[in-house]
DNA sequence: AAGCCTATCAACCGCACACTC
DNA sequence: GGAGTGTGCGGTTGATAGGCT
């Protein structure tokens, strides 16, 4: 006959939390730890639904939360992770210490979405809207900084790509539905729509894992990222760079593409090679 | 000053998944 | 294997603050 409701709605408060409720929740979790959300409200003397308590704690009361504005680095990381993971806010949040999925989701919807639209990119697929891109021009200083950090800026002929089959995509809703080798010409330069993030073609420095690349790789767990240098020479599996040379995900020899600096590799059981 | 509009973000809701019995 | 339960996730809503006319 269906499941019982998570709480007795008639006797629970809704809406904004009061200071007193916050204090009760904090005190209870400090004393007993997280978990058992269903029984927590009663035990803590709160007239709230367990889910509501959990949400309040995770999104607002947790001591390790980082409040305040998102930094440029966080912006970039969110965009990159979203290109890989889609609307998997909790996974994205897992790579941004001190940030919550709800916070990132809100930030995406209010800021980044608009930013991408301004760049002429579809926020869902990260593809150019209408087949032509209108990337903003990054300042020389921004570009230099980005090159130092191996971060892609829009003006840098993005090999900014989103190839994804339904099976490949982190979630089907995010699938761009592109076919293999579908590419876009942006400002006279080839835009590879593979689901990967890379440095521009002209940047021939050996790639060094940055916080962003590392996080992006870690974001997909066991699957490995490839980081290659100039024209495909010196391909380095990110696993190796991270010190996981012997892990199953390590696949250093597998990639030689001159167009890809680091890209998403699928585990062997899913069909093996890069996408 | 008042009314309207927009942006922001905390919170809610419904669903899905994992686990237990 | 199926039902029940707990928990987590993502989409959406609603309250509120701030800006504009």
Automatic annotation (TrEMBL):
Protein name as it appears in the record: Myb-related protein 308-like
Keyword Transcription: yes
UniProt key word Electron transport: no
CDD domains: SANT (cd00167)
Signal sequence, renumbered to the chain: none
Superkingdom: Eukaryota
SMART domains in UniProt: SANT
Matching InterPro entries: Homeodomain-like_sf (IPR009057), Myb_dom (IPR017930), Myb_TF_plants (IPR015495), SANT/Myb (IPR001005)
Keywords on record: DNA-binding, Nucleus, Repeat, Repressor, Transcription, Transcription regulation
Main location: nucleus
HTH myb-type domain residues: 9-61, 62-116
Cellular component annotations (GO), alphabetically ordered: nucleus
Myb-like domain segment(s): 9-61, 62-112
Subcellular location: Nucleus
Entry GO MF terms: transcription cis-regulatory region binding
């Amino acid at each position: 006959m269906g499941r019982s409701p998570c709480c007795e709605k008639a006797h629970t408060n809704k809406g904004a939390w009061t200071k007193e409720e916050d204090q009760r929740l904090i005190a209870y979790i400090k004393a007993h730890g997280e978990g058992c959300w269903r029984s927590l409200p009663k035990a803590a003397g709160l007239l709230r639904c367990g889910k509501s308590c959990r949400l309040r704690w995770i999104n607002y009361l947790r001591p390790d939360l980082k409040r305040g504005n998102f930094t440029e680095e966080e912006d970039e990381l969110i965009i990159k992770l979203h290109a890989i993971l889609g609307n998997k806010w909790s996974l994205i949040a897992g790579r941004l210490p001190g940030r919550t999925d709800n916070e990132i989701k809100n930030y995406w919807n209010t800021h980044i979405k608009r930013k991408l639209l301004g760049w002429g990119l579809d926020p869902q697929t990260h593809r150019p809207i209408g087949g032509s891109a209108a990337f903003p021009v990054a300042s020389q200083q921004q570009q230099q900084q980005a090159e130092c950090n191996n971060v892609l800026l829009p003006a840098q002929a993005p090999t900014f790509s989103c190839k994804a089959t339904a099976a490949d995509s982190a979630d089907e809703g995010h699938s761009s539905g592109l076919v293999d080798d579908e590419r876009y010409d942006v400002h006279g330069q080839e835009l590879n729509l593979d689901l990967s993030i890379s440095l521009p073609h002209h940047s021939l420095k050996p790639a060094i894992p940055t916080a962003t690349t590392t996080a992006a790789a870690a974001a997909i767990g066991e699957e490995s990222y490839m980081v290659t240098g100039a024209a495909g020479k010196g391909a380095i599996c990110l696993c190796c760079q991270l010190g996981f040379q012997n892990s199953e995900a390590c696949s250093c020899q597998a990639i030689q593409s001159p167009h890809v600096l680091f890209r998403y590799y699928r585990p062997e059981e899913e069909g093996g090679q890069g996408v």
